[in-house]
Write a structure and sequence with these properties.
single chain; alpha/beta; Beta-Lactamase; Alpha-Beta Plaits; TIM Barrel; 8-stranded mixed β-barrel; about 25% strand
């Protein structure tokens, strides 16, 4: 049953008509009160609607009345549907008759032994069945434990909503179940993580074959609410009995292998090996030290100059974060940034970086340097927050820093995930005065046809193309094409990672607008940048391009 926001019925299906005895014509325009049996008092409905308003949904058992007056128990789920502004526009309810004892028993059994969302085993049942399997295993038995974690599922859930996320999880469970054997075990372990036990292996390569087959299944598009959604998974594998003979040990070791797969690029599988124990301990320490660094604002910002190939002027810098920790030593951004993205710590880290950049801009202004814009990398998770613009604007206001001195760099994947809402947000940022660029172009969607929809100032070609273009003709052709097409869309092009004079010379011949890289300068501290800028102004005429 579907109603509008005032609970007026607009649509029911044939199952509703069969179960209640009412036709659509008889209930359309009325409210669900037509079904009330009188067995629930006012407080029951008050609590129900409190849950719906607070949580967005309600599920439970209720007594209702058919058209012929018969009262029956039903299992009812009510969800709200909201628009982009979060305003409720309608409700939909799904219910089933549970009056028959066998149906009731089945409901109880499902609630006891299965995950109600995906219909896979719940954790308790999975543990019990795996313990029984181990207890009855022979000396030669071998089983594989797989921990399957969906990559970047949190972003999908936060961007498209829990309803889409829940539907995606059920579809993932269906795909897993479609390739397991009858004796294998499948469980939704929690959130977006699944456990799979492949029983009675002939060879360990059977587990590899399954992991490859599963990744292939999950790489196929999911079609949800007229959307085409793509996900990948990271899979960790441990083996009974070589990695452990207890359920918890096997899961822990497979979990460590899964994190290893995720750290090494996602969309792959990895086996447990003893050294992962040390890696897992480092991850725990890394998270603890990152949280301390956020509180203490212990990050350092370095700046890499950008040079205009037309005027030979320094026309901006990119802010790059650095972190030296007393316990861990110097930690590479390649290690702690992906970890921060996975844990959600990237949001407070990004705001610390923005604060420090604003402080440097204010310092430069006091020294007479007024017009050096700074580009900052914006993580997808940070950008997707509902209050993203309000929070960065608050930081700028605190330091009296103009948005016109900031360039926000977003990846291709970030802007393509939900393009309509992204366009709306980008337009607002542009109106506020920020400059906008797409970072690492060519490594993701690479769809120039999409770029015309976004109010971009710059397109940044990934360094992997720049560093190989003087040796590889195909890389040179790609760079040349990107520059040509971007200019036709009135977007300026930045080439990052230029390391040689030949690369810079070729980029200038192609018509590239701006270059940054070690040829001009490595990332340097704020103080070192001021010295660099002074020397550049003195000697720039000597540095021909």
């Amino acid at each position: 049953m579907i109603t509008d926001d005032k609970m007026t019925i607009s649509l029911v299906n044939t199952a509703f008509e069969s179960l209640t005895g009412y036709t659509l014509q008889e209930v359309k325009g009325k409210t669900p009160r037509i079904l009330q049996s009188g067995k629930q008092d006012a407080s029951f409905y008050q609590n129900m609607w409190k849950d719906i308003r607070v949580k967005g949904s309600w599920q439970g058992e209720i007594w209702n009345k058919r058209k012929n007056g018969e009262i029956y128990p039903e299992r009812l789920t009510i969800h709200t549907i909201v628009n982009e502004e979060g305003i409720v526009i309608s409700y939909f309810g799904v219910f089933s008759d549970i009056s028959h004892n066998k149906v009731i028993e089945k409901e109880i059994e499902e609630l006891t032994f299965t995950d109600t969302l995906t219909n896979t085993m719940n954790r308790h049942t999975f543990y019990e069945q795996l313990e029984d399997l181990i207890a009855t295993s022979t000396e030669n038995s071998e089983h594989a434990m797989l921990v399957v974690d969906l990559d970047r599922f949190k972003q999908i859930n936060e961007t498209l909503g829990n309803e889409v996320g829940d539907f995606l999880l059920t579809e993932v469970a269906d795909r897993i179940n479609s390739i397991v054997r009858a004796n294998d075990l499948v469980s939704r372990y929690g959130g977006d993580e699944f456990l799979v036990t492949i029983t009675d292996l002939n060879f360990q390569k059977d587990a590899v074959h399954f992991a490859e087959k599963l990744n292939k299944q999950l790489n196929k598009p999911f079609y949800i609410q007229d959307r085409e959604i793509y996900i990948t998974s990271s899979i960790g594998i441990s083996f009974y009995p070589q990695d452990g003979i207890e359920v918890e040990t096997l899961i822990q070791k497979a979990d460590k292998a899964m994190y290893f797969a995720k750290q090494n690029g996602r969309n792959q599988y990895a086996f447990y090996f003893d050294e992962l124990q040390t890696d897992a301990e480092r991850l725990l320490l890394l998270e603890s030290e990152l949280r301390k660094a956020i509180q203490q604002k212990a990050f350092v910002i370095h700046y890499q100059p950008k040079v205009s190939l037309d005027t030979n002027q320094i026309i901006g810098v990119e802010a790059l974060v650095r972190w030296a920790n007393g316990t861990l030593g110097v930690v590479s951004p390649a290690e702690f940034i992906p970890f921060a993205e996975d844990t959600g710590l990237i949001i407070p880290i990004s705001e610390v970086i923005l604060e420090k950049v604003c402080m440097d801009i204010v310092d430069w202004r006091s020294r007479g340097i007024q017009h050096i814009p700074v580009s900052i990398n914006i993580a997808a998770l940070h950008f997707q927050q509902d209050d993203f613009m309000e929070r960065i604007n608050a930081i700028l206001t605190k330091y009296n820093c103009s948005p016109q001195l900031l360039e926000l760099e977003l990846t291709e994947r970030t802007v393509m995930e939900d393009s309509e809402s992204i366009v709306h947000k980008l337009v607002k940022l542009k109106r506020m005065g920020f400059k906008l660029s797409i970072d690492d172009f060519g490594t993701g969607y690479s769809s120039l046809s999409y770029l015309n929809r976004f109010p971009l100032n710059y397109l940044k070609i990934d360094s992997s193309f720049i560093q190989q273009m003087t040796e590889l003709q195909d890389k040179q052709a790609i760079v040349d094409t990107i520059i040509l097409m971007a200019h036709r869309l009135h977007i300026k092009v930045i080439a990052e990672g230029a390391e040689t004079k030949d690369q810079v010379k070729l980029l200038k011949e192609m018509g590239c607008d701006i270059v940054q890289g070690y040829y001009f300068s490595k990332p340097i501290s704020s103080a070192a940048f001021l010295d660099f800028l002074e020397l550049w102004e003195i000697h720039k005429q000597e540095r021909t391009i």
